[in-house]
Amino acid sequence: MLSQPTATTGRPTIVSKQNSVAFSRESKTAGGVTHTIYHAAGEKPNLEKYPINVDPKILVPHPATKHYWRYAIQYALWNMSHILCFYAMYKSPRIWTPLAIIAHVGITFFYDQLNFALGHLLLHASFATRFGTYIKRPEQFNYLVYVAWKHHYVDVQALGEYWLQYRVSYIDVCIWHPHSVLKVPVHQYLLPFTYFWLAFDLWTQGEATSPLQVDYLLIYMWRHFQAMTHEYYHVPSSRQSTYFCFKPFYWVFSLFEVVGVTDRALHKEHHADDRNALTMVDHFFDMWVPKWVDELFTVYWRSRVAAFQLKELVGSPDLMKDDGSTRNEHIFFLTISKEAGLGLAFLLPFTLFICYLMHGMMAIAEV
Ligand SMILES: [Zn+2]
Ligand SMILES: [Zn+2]
């Protein structure tokens, strides 16, 4: 039996055997875990014989290579927002006590990890179902999504090709996937809005009128570190001190690695199956979270792949087809898009609500 959508609701339902596609299963053990990979019948690939091997020359260039000035302006504002954020804390010492700063830096750190991993699930759902479209119609994707695909499956050094566009794409990404309900890249607008609102308050009132202005910019500080963490993982150790030419960034990342906030070895495991399969992915976090949180995301991914009996494209002729995804693959992608998208959409207001409660509790404790 296979989960298939009905034409009217678009929701997966069980259909009769004569309409279902026959799948064959193959097991592969990686990192001590056995994965089940599904293939359409008659296309059973030999994973050793058909590793992914995309010639970079056949890729159509992504249009993000233009618009350099738009990215430069956004990146300058993003960097300035960190300075403004800490300046606002300094100017409001009654609200931003050292304890409050530690608590809010911690909360926003966890927000950013969950936000990243939910988006990462979505990326891999897209990679596993639209591989050929990345090659032939890259303009279909946000630059971060495209370069993450290229980094996984074509050239691991792709992140550094247009590093400015790569970093800024972290704030260009929509909260919901473009195929879903909300197509607006919310943060691209919220970041400058918050920045100018806070700057105006500091200028006219001498302090931040809402602590949430600072919380929101703290979220953006972590997002910046999130973007650079991935670059840090892939710059060879010998080049790290020159790649991060602004030395404080290099020092911060060296400290992160020592205390375990970042883990290069764990990120290598995330890439372990890049050449063999699109459905075998784990370790969706780039920075530290409790182990069970990391495992929860991996279990979610595997359960969705199994529930939809997602066909493994590696080794099949469909790998290079432009949008050659079947109805089942499309529904798999939409399901992850909606479930992860829902998490992403509620995570930001939820985090800001927690921050708001924390400020309230601290104000009561002070009285
Ligand atoms: Zn990945
Ligand atoms: Zn990587």
Query: Mean of residue pLDDT?
Result: 83
Summed up, the helix count is 12
Bound molecules: zinc ion
Apparent shape: globular
Oligomer: single chain
Radius of gyration: 22 Å
Low-confidence spans: 1-21
Major sheet size, sense and barrel closure: 2 strands, antiparallel
Number of spatially distinct domains: 1
Q: Biggest sheet, strands in spatial order? A: 1-2
User: What's the order of the H and E elements?
Assistant: EEEEHHHHHHHHHHHH
Beta strand %: 5-15%
Helical content, roughly?
A: 55-70%
The secondary structure category is mainly alpha
C-alpha termini separation? 63 Å
Extended strand count? 4
Characterise the protein shown here.
The protein is 56% helix and 6% strand. The protein is mainly alpha-helical. The protein has one domain. The strands form two sheets. Strands 1-2 form a two-stranded antiparallel ribbon. A two-stranded antiparallel ribbon has the order 3-4. The N and C termini lie far apart (63 Å). Mean pLDDT is 83; it is low at 1-21. Bound molecules: zinc ion (2 copies).
Essential attributes:
mainly alpha; about 375 residues; two-stranded antiparallel ribbon; binds zinc ion
Summarize this entry quickly.
With 367 residues, this protein is mostly helical. 56% of the residues lie in helices and 6% in strands.
Map the helices and strands.
Blueprint: E1 3-5, E2 12-14, E3 23-30, E4 33-40, H1 68-91, H2 98-129, H3 131-136, H4 143-153, H5 163-172, H6 186-204, H7 211-234, H8 240-243, H9 247-259, H10 264-270, H11 291-307, H12 327-366
Antiparallel strand pairs: 1-2, 3-4
Helix pairs in contact: 1-5, 1-6, 1-7, 2-7, 2-12, 5-7, 6-7, 7-12
The structure holds zinc ion (2 copies).
